[in-house]
Automatic annotation (TrEMBL):
UniProt KW Cell wall biogenesis/degradation keyword: yes
Protein name in UniProt: Expansin
Membrane topology recorded in Swiss-Prot or TrEMBL: Peripheral membrane protein
Top-level taxonomic group: Eukaryota
Primary role: Causes loosening and extension of plant cell walls by disrupting non-covalent bonding between cellulose microfibrils and matrix glucans. No enzymatic activity has been found.
Subcellular location: Secreted, Cell wall; Membrane
Residue ranges of every copy of the Expansin-like CBD domain listed in the record: 29-108
Keywords carried by this UniProt record: Cell wall, Cell wall biogenesis/degradation, Secreted
Assigned protein family: Belongs to the expansin family. Expansin A subfamily.
InterPro entries named among the record's database cross-references: Expansin, Expansin_CBD, Expansin_CBD_sf
Species lineage: Eukaryota, Viridiplantae, Streptophyta, Embryophyta, Tracheophyta
């Protein structure tokens, strides 16, 4: 999506576009995360997830903006690394606290 169009539908103030991470489903061994409102290229090429007790783990696209992990990440704070289709990678450390539960929404801001 072109930046002017994105700025019409996104909330753009002072070079900051919020990125929302929403956990929408899962089980102890399966996390499904919806990532939305991504600035820059506007589309995601790849996502990795890191628990506070794990290394970076590649997520796979489930469908649309939903990305899945088949790792046991309960009781760990979660970080995300997102690479957009224009090649930019942004890391969001400890976006989700260790007290997370399924169905909650977490957000972070990214400087573009």
């Amino acid at each position: 999506m072109a930046q002017p169009a994105w700025e019409k539908i996104g909330i753009y103030r002072g070079g900051i576009v919020p990125v929302v991470f929403q956990r929408i489903n899962g089980r102890d061994y399966f996390e499904l995360v919806n990532i939305s409102n991504v600035g820059g290229a506007g589309s995601i090429k790849s996502v990795s997830i890191k628990g506070s007790k794990t290394v970076w783990l590649a997520m796979s696209r489930n469908w649309g903006a939903n990305w899945q992990s088949n790792a046991y990440l309960d009781c760990q704070s979660l970080s995300f690394s997102i690479t957009t289709t224009d090649g930019a990678t942004r890391v969001f450390l400890n976006v989700v606290p260790s007290s997370w539960s399924f169905g909650q929404t977490y957000s972070s801001r990214v400087q573009i």
